[in-house]
C-alpha cells in the first residue's frame, strides 16, 4: 500500500477527538461522491422506464414521510449536464452512481430499453470528458416491480434475471466504466425489504428475508462473472456492504454481538470472500429455514475475486441479549423489550440500545473511531483485500443564510473527523484506496422522503436549484489537494 503521512507536530498520534488537520493522503487516492438512481433521477415514467418496487412502495399511503415519492427527486435525469459540471467544479476524482434496472429492462427481463442505455452512456461519457472516473452500481434497491410480483429476491429467478441485466450493462458500458459495483447494501434489501418491512417491498417474512440474502449473494457472484465476460475495457469489480460496528451491553454482550455480526456482516462477507456460510448463522436460523435454497455450485459462484470491497459506514450499534424473552413476547410488547429486534430463528431477543450522542438528524450516533475500527478489522480478516469507503456522510437540518450560502458546520466537522479516522486506519496498515462522501445532492431519503438532507450540495426541492454547502467547498479543497483541511 502507498504510504500516508501525518503532519509534523508534537501530537504525533493526532487529536483524541479525531479533529486532525494537515493529514496527507497518498497520490492516487480517490476522492468521490455518490448518489442512487431512485433518489436523484426523477423521470419515473419517461423514455420507457418501468415501475420499481420503490415507485410502488412510496405511493402506498403511510410508507414514506409526507407521502413523498421519487417521481421528480432532484430531476437529475434532465439536469445531468449541469450536475456533471458541478462535479467538475468540486474537483471530484470519481462519481459513484447507480443504474436503474427498470430503465434498462422495464419488467426486469426481456427486451432492452435503448433509451435507458443511452442515458447512462451519456452520463459515463460526460464523466470521462470532465476527468471523473465512473463507478457504476448495478443495484441500489430499485427492483423492477414485475420481478417482485413474481417473487422478488426470495425467488431464484430474480438472480437469473440479474445475471442477464449484468450482461447487458457490461456490453453497453464495460468499455468505459472504471469500477463495477454489483450490489449496494444487500443487508437492507434482504432484511429491511423482506423481514422488517420498512423498505420496499415492505414484507414481513423472516424465511423470505434469508432466502433473499442468499439470492442477493448469488446475484453478486453471477453478475461479476457476467460483467467480466462482457466488459471490453479493464474495469475493477466490487460490491458495497454496510457493516454493523458493534458494541455489547450486559452479561450476554458477547452472544448478542456474535448473533448480529453473523446475520449482518458475516452472512455476506464469508460467502463472497471465503466461499462459505458461517456455521453459527446456519444454526441460529435453523428454526426458520433449512437453507435448502443453497444449491451445489452456488458458493463457488458467489466467491469471486474482487478488486475492491466497498465499505459503507455511518455509526456504531450497541446490542444486548434478553434471556427468556421470545420474539412473540417482544412483538406483543413485553416489558423492557421495546425496541428489541427478533432476528430470524432466534429464541432470544437481541435489543438495539440507544447510544450516547451526539447524533445526526437521523438519530445515528457520531463515532469516527468506529470507522477506523472497521477498516482495521476488515484488514485483519481479509489482509489481501483492498478497501474503499463507498458511503459516509451525515444528515443535518441545514439553513440557508441571508447571503444565499449554506453553512453546515456540523456536517463539515463530521466529515473531517471521519476522514481523520480513515487516514489513521491507513497509517496502521489498511489498504484503503478511496472515499466517497454520501451524498453529492440532497435527495429522496427513502422512508424519510425529503425530510433529511445528506448532500454536500443543497437542493431546493421547490425550484431544484443547487447550492454548494460549506462542507462541499471544504471537501473540494481536500479533493484537489489531498491534504485534510482544518
Descriptive notes:
Keywords: Glycosidase, Hydrolase. One of its GO terms (molecular function) is hydrolase activity, acting on glycosyl bonds. With 486 residues, the protein is α/β, with parallel strands linked by helices. It has one domain (30-244, 264-270, 299-313, 362-480): TIM Barrel (Alpha-Beta Barrel), CATH 3.20.20. The chain has helices at residues 37-40, 53-58, 80-90, 101-104, 114-129, 145-149, 156-173, 186-196, 206-230, 253-274, 279-284, 298-302, 327-331, 368-381, 409-427, 470-481, and strands at residues 30-34, 94-98, 133-139, 179-184, 236-242, 245-248, 308-312, 316-322, 340-341, 349-353, 387-392, 432-438, 457-459, 466-468. It has an eight-stranded parallel barrel, surrounded by five helices. Mean pLDDT is 93; it is low at 5-12 and 326-340.
Task: List the topology elements.
Blueprint: E1 30-34, H1 37-40, H2 53-58, H3 80-90, E2 94-98, H4 101-104, H5 114-129, E3 133-139, H6 145-149, H7 156-173, E4 179-184, H8 186-196, H9 206-230, E5 236-242, E6 245-248, H10 253-274, H11 279-284, H12 298-302, E7 308-312, E8 316-322, H13 327-331, E9 340-341, E10 349-353, H14 368-381, E11 387-392, H15 409-427, E12 432-438, E13 457-459, E14 466-468, H16 470-481
Parallel strand pairs: 1-2, 1-12, 2-3, 3-4, 4-5, 5-7, 6-8, 7-11, 11-12
Antiparallel strand pairs: 8-10, 9-10, 13-14
Helix pairs in contact: 7-9, 8-9, 9-10, 14-15, 15-16
Keywords: Glycosidase, Hydrolase
EC number: 3.2.1.-
GO molecular function: hydrolase activity, acting on glycosyl bonds
Amino acid at each position: 500500500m502507498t504510504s500516508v503521512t501525518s503532519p509534523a507536530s508534537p501530537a504525533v498520534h493526532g487529536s483524541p477527538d479525531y479533529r486532525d488537520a494537515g493529514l496527507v493522503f497518498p497520490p492516487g487516492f480517490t476522492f468521490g461522491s455518490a448518489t442512487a438512481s431512485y433518489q436523484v433521477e426523477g423521470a419515473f415514467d419517461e423514455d420507457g422506464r418501468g415501475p420499481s418496487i420503490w415507485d410502488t412502495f412510496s405511493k402506498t399511503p403511510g410508507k414514506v414521510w409526507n407521502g413523498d415519492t421519487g417521481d421528480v427527486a432532484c430531476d437529475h435525469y434532465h439536469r445531468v449536464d449541469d450536475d456533471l459540471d458541478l462535479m467538475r467544479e468540486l474537483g471530484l476524482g470519481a462519481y459513484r452512481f447507480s443504474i436503474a434496472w427498470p430503465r434498462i429492462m422495464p419488467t426486469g427481463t426481456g427486451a432492452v430499453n435503448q433509451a435507458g442505455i443511452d442515458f447512462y452512456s451519456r452520463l459515463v461519457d460526460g464523466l470521462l470528458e470532465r476527468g471523473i472516473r465512473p463507478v457504476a452500481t448495478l443495484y441500489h434497491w430499485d427492483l423492477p416491480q414485475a420481478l417482485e410480483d413474481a417473487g422478488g429476491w426470495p425467488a431464484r429467478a430474480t438472480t437469473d434475471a440479474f445475471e442477464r441485466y449484468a450482461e447487458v450493462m457490461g456490453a453497453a458500458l464495460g468499455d468505459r466504466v472504471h469500477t463495477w459495483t454489483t450490489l449496494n447494501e444487500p443487508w437492507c434489501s434482504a432484511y429491511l425489504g423482506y423481514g422488517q418491512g420498512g423498505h420496499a417491498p415492505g414484507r414481513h417474512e423472516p424465511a423470505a428475508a434469508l432466502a433473499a440474502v442468499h439470492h442477493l449473494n448469488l446475484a453478486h457472484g453471477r453478475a461479476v462473472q457476467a460483467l467480466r465476460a462482457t466488459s471490453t475495457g479493464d474495469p475493477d469489480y466490487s460490491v458495497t456492504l454496510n457493516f454493523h460496528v458493534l458494541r455489547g451491553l450486559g452479561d450476554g454482550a458477547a452472544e448478542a454481538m456474535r448473533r448480529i455480526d453473523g446475520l449482518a456482516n458475516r452472512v455476506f462477507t464469508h460467502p463472497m470472500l471465503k466461499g462459505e456460510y458461517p456455521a453459527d448463522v446456519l444454526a441460529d436460523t435453523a428454526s426458520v429455514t433449512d437453507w435448502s435454497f443453497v444449491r451445489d455450485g452456488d458458493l463457488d459462484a458467489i466467491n469471486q475475486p474482487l478488486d475492491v470491497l466497498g465499505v459503507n459506514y455511518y455509526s456504531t450499534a450497541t446490542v444486548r441479549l434478553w434471556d427468556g424473552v421470545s420474539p412473540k413476547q417482544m412483538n406483543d410488547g413485553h416489558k423492557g423489550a421495546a425496541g428489541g429486534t427478533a432476528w430470524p430463528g432466534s429464541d432470544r431477543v437481541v435489543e438495539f440500545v440507544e447510544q450516547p450522542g451526539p447524533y445526526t438528524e437521523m438519530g445515528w450516533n457520531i463515532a469516527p473511531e468506529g470507522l477506523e475500527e472497521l477498516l482495521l478489522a476488515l484488514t485483519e480478516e481479509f489482509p489481501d483485500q483492498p478497501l474503499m469507503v463507498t458511503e459516509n456522510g451525515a444528515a443535518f437540518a441545514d439553513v440557508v443564510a441571508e447571503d444565499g450560502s449554506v453553512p453546515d458546520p456540523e456536517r463539515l466537522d463530521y466529515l473531517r473527523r471521519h476522514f481523520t479516522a480513515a487516514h489513521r486506519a491507513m497509517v496502521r496498515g489498511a489498504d484503503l484506496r478511496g472515499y466517497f462522501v454520501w451524498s453529492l445532492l440532497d435527495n429522496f431519503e427513502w422512508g424519510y422522503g425529503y425530510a433529511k438532507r445528506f448532500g454536500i450540495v443543497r437542493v431546493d426541492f421547490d425550484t431544484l436549484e443547487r447550492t454548494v454547502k460549506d462542507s462541499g467547498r471544504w471537501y473540494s479543497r481536500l479533493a484537489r489537494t489531498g491534504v485534510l483541511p482544518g
